[in-house]
Design goal:
The complex is a heterodimer of chains A (502) and B (332). Chain A has 502 residues and is of the alpha/beta class. Chain A has 17 helices and 25 strands. With 332 residues, chain B is mostly helical. A two-stranded antiparallel sheet of chain B has the order 1-2. Classes of the chains: A alpha/beta (502), B mainly alpha (332).
């Protein structure tokens, strides 16, 4: 039974078409994946369904009735809820208050706390989470429990359709599995789900059917079981991706740039040691929270290491003290996994962001040479393939993929010898990914040493010369990539050499 | 499978000590100030005499009533810098009304309403013109002060004696009231507002707005309308504070209460309010106002010059917020 159908939805922002003819049919109780590169129009479509935006033309039919929400309150009343990429909870309020936010039980304006707690408890129980205390403040819950609260809010609103916008992007693997179990449960209860994700594996695991958006149009749809990943990707990018990963030649360099021994930064990072040569890409696999990000952060002095030694270009550095500024002077560059809050100054221009680590190259006596700065920035924009108007454009106005390219271009500008890259392709579209891989490979070719952290094993296998695995704060010895298989890497990551996980 | 789903990691528990620090912190601070000055002045029986306490309470009324309104705004994630000017404007409006022969009760209503109108204006600037609260209310700080001076003819408006002048006297008439009417009004309003914030849908939505505005909006809460209510309601409190100010001076002075917005915001912050929103309590803010009042009074009794008070109060604000940081650091 079709619960929601969209026909020829169009939406323009000024002269730019964001949606240019989208058709979508959602069946009752199915998980429908919405796939597309960043900028393909997925978020715009979600906002239209959720009533935050109004389409210019086209028809929407919900339960055989025309559907045209004026605002988000309308869409909630019509049974459509949105679960956002970042959790939208009020941390200072209780679980029950969050679950029933917006339709609190009341008597003449007075909050009926007893009914509210009882209703919230009922929803949590129906969802098999009676252990979550409805009176606890949301800030005190784990992320997994917070996600449950967010889903329960959608259930409490008597939603028939739940929109999920990259719900797993900030979740560790365990929580992703829990979320999937919850999605299956929702769909078994007859609730339909529209699911946005960049991870094709995820979509295969959870979705029944799919719609691919490209340049604001729906270009393909059907049952997920009937298509191959290659078909999906070629539909997304509009061309078949010959190779996502660049071909890499064997490195001609032999000198060791970075030598790390017994580095620890409790509680997450217990012990890590490795060597990194010029022109080499060393991959680090591991689960989220295994200590892999902390390794990079300790190397770059964002977190303080407790013990260990670090040698760069033959010079010993103080491992347990120092500052990022000092590390940059020694030729180390760091790319944060969280580009929005830690990586980029979103309100500043591309030029400012690119040159931030090395203003010295476009200034004299503290005065910026703006012409020089924009020249250098424009050059990098071309080199890395950033899609932007000019170097004056604010970074916040770029798509996620292009923001990430700015962050990586900054490392190139910094001319660092050692690149510490934490999840360089997280949350960006496939086209941008290919460009990021190309850029990383070129850096290695020029003799930079790269340390690459990723949750995405194909990326590590496609890019790295050697691989080490972080598990519970300990780094295994690095071995050539040919000696690893994705299965053996995963086994090391979950620490099941002898005993099994769980 | 079901095992795996239900087995959600336990929540990090805030330490007992930290949790109590939130609730008791302001009380401890107040106790500390009182004890310190009881010892310093060398005559606790004088510092803590009913007479002196009455004086302190009467002095606190204006800041206390304003801090109730400010608490609501700060919990919602906003700020209102115009409060000092609103107090002056409301006082002038009340005084002019009395002089125009309006019945005192309506004169009071007019003063309170003047505050509400400025609050509404702030809210419309914030929601309609999309000016951030800091700037919008910085603007009305000037506008309200200017209007007050304009309608007052640039000089204090003296009023004929009415019962309004008796609102914040040290010794109330009738004596069985013990405390002045203004003090009682402040207490009743504080209790009422605390209950409204805790027990009504409006109150919880104020918290929701300050805690996570995007979440509130996604849940169908009309954040614009909510803000209009919040700033207007707070404006009424500021207007009432202005009436009290007029009562105390027995004239409507358009230059009064300049800079008092900082005292009022400080009271809320010392009382546990967070300028990031989502946190704060009326009780805490009142205690915060009392801490400053007892401190001022103590310094006066010691014969310390004004600048000492200013330094101490400044240090206390920083200290209170530092404690708050310590409290919330690990709960993340």
């Amino acid at each position: 039974m079709t619960i929601l159908s969209l026909r020829d939805i169009k939406k323009h922002f000024g002269a730019t078409p964001a949606l240019d003819g989208v058709d979508l049919d959602l069946q009752k109780g199915e998980v429908h994946a919405l796939i597309g590169e960043n900028g393909a129009g997925k978020s715009t479509l979600m906002n239209i369904l959720f009533g935050a935006l109004r389409p210019d033309s086209g028809t929407m039919t919900l339960n055989n009735k025309p559907y045209a929400p004026d605002n988000t309150l309308d869409s909630r009343k019509s049974g459509i809820s949105l679960i956002h990429q970042e959790l939208l909870l009020a941390p200072h309020l209780s679980v029950a208050e969050n679950i029933l936010m917006g339709n609190e039980p009341r008597r003449f304006g007075w909050l009926d706390r007893k009914t509210m707690n009882a209703e919230a408890r009922k929803v949590l129980e129906s969802f098999d989470h009676p252990e979550i205390d409805v009176e606890a403040k949301v800030a005190t819950l784990s992320i997994a429990a917070q996600q449950v609260v967010e889903i329960c809010r959608a259930i409490a609103a008597k939603s028939e359709i739940i929109l999920m916008d990259e719900p797993t992007s900030s979740l560790p693997r365990d929580d992703v599995r829990r979320l999937f179990a919850q999605i299956l449960r929702l769909s078994a209860a007859g609730i339909s789900i529209i699911y946005i994700s960049h991870f094709l594996e995820e979509i295969r695991e959870i979705a029944d059917s799919f719609t691919v958006l490209r340049d604001g149009r729906s270009v393909a749809s059907g049952k997920i079981a009937d298509v191959s990943d290659d078909d999906l990707i070629s539909n997304m990018v509009g061309r078949s991706v010959e190779r996502l990963f660049p071909v890499r030649e064997h490195s001609k360099y032999t000198e060791t740039v970075l030598e790390v021994r017994e580095l620890s930064a409790p509680p997450r990072l217990r012990s890590a040691g490795f060597e990194l040569k010029r022109g080499e890409i060393l991959g680090i696999a591991g689960l989220m929270g295994s200590g892999r990000s902390e390794l990079l952060r300790a190397l770059f002095c964002i977190e303080t290491a407790a013990s260990g030694s670090i040698k760069v270009n033959g010079k010993m550095l103080a491992a347990t003290s120092g500052s990022p500024a000092g590390r940059i002077r020694y030729g180390i560059g760091y790319l944060s996994e969280d580009r929005k809050s830690e990586g980029l100054a979103l309100a500043l221009s591309i030029g400012d962001n690119l040159t931030m680590t090395r203003y010295s190259s476009c200034s004299s006596y503290g005065w910026l040479n703006l012409t020089k700065q924009s020249e250098q920035a424009e050059k990098l924009i071309d080199n890395v393939g950033i899609k932007a108007q000019d170097s004056e454009q604010k970074v916040g106005a770029l798509s996620g993929g292009n923001q990430q390219k700015v962050a990586i271009a900054r490392l190139i500008y910094q001319d660092a010898d050692v690149l510490l890259l934490d999840e360089p392709t997280r949350g960006i579209d496939i086209g941008s990914k290919a460009q990021v891989y190309q850029t990383i490979a070129e850096c290695a070719k020029k003799g930079k040493a790269v340390l690459l952290i990723s949750s995405y094993l194909p990326e590590l296998f496609g890019m790295c010369d050697r691989l080490a695995v972080m598990s519970r704060g300990r780094l295994t010895a690095a071995r050539p990539i040919s000696e690893w298989t994705p299965e053996s890497a995963m086994r090391s990551a979950i620490g099941s050499g002898t005993q099994t996980a769980n | 499978m079901s095992d795996e789903i239900t087995n959600i990691p336990a929540a990090p528990v805030q330490s007992f000590f930290r949790r109590w620090l939130t609730v008791l912190g302001p009380f401890l601070g107040l106790a500390l100030v009182i004890i310190a000055f009881s010892i310093l002045t060398g005559s606790p029986e004088k510092y803590l005499s009913p007479f002196n306490i009455r004086i302190v309470l009467s002095q606190t009324v204006i800041v206390a009533i304003s801090s109730i309104g400010m608490t609501i705004i700060i919990i919602s994630g906003g700020i209102d810098l115009s409060v000092g000017s609103v107090i002056a404007l409301a006082g002038v409006v009340t005084a002019l009304c009395i002089n125009a022969g309006v019945d005192p009760i309506f004169a009071v209503c007019a003063g309170v309403a003047a505050g509400g109108i400025v609050g509404l204006f702030n809210a419309l600037a914030i929601t309609g013109l999309r000016v951030v609260p800091f700037i919008a209310t910085l603007g009305t700080l000037g506008i309200a002060r200017g209007i007050a001076k304009w309608i007052a003819g640039q000089e204090p408006v003296n009023v004929a004696p009415t019962w309004i002048n008796e609102l914040v006297v040290t010794f109330p008439d009738p004596p069985w009231l013990v405390l002045s009417i203004g003090v009682w009004v402040a207490i009743i309003l504080a209790v009422l507002t605390a209950v409204v914030l805790r027990r009504t849908v409006f109150g919880r939505r104020v918290f929701a707005l300050g805690s996570n505005e995007a979440a509130a909006r996604a849940c169908g809460i009309s954040t614009g309308r909510l803000r209009i209510w919040i700033y207007s309601l707070a404006g009424l409190f500021f207007g009432l504070a202005g009436v009290m100010q007029m009562s105390r001076l027995r004239q409507g002075d358009p230059t009064v209460a300049a800079g008092s917005e900082l005292d009022i915001i400080a009271a809320v912050v010392i009382g546990g309010g967070s300028l990031n929103g989502g946190q704060g309590s009326v009780l805490g803010s009142i205690i915060g106002a009392l801490i400053m009042a007892f401190l001022r009074n103590g310094c006066q009794q010691m014969g310390w010059p004004n600048y000492v008070q200013e330094i101490i109060i400044g240090a206390i604000i920083v200290f209170a917020v530092a404690i708050d940081q310590f409290r919330t650091r690990d709960s993340k």
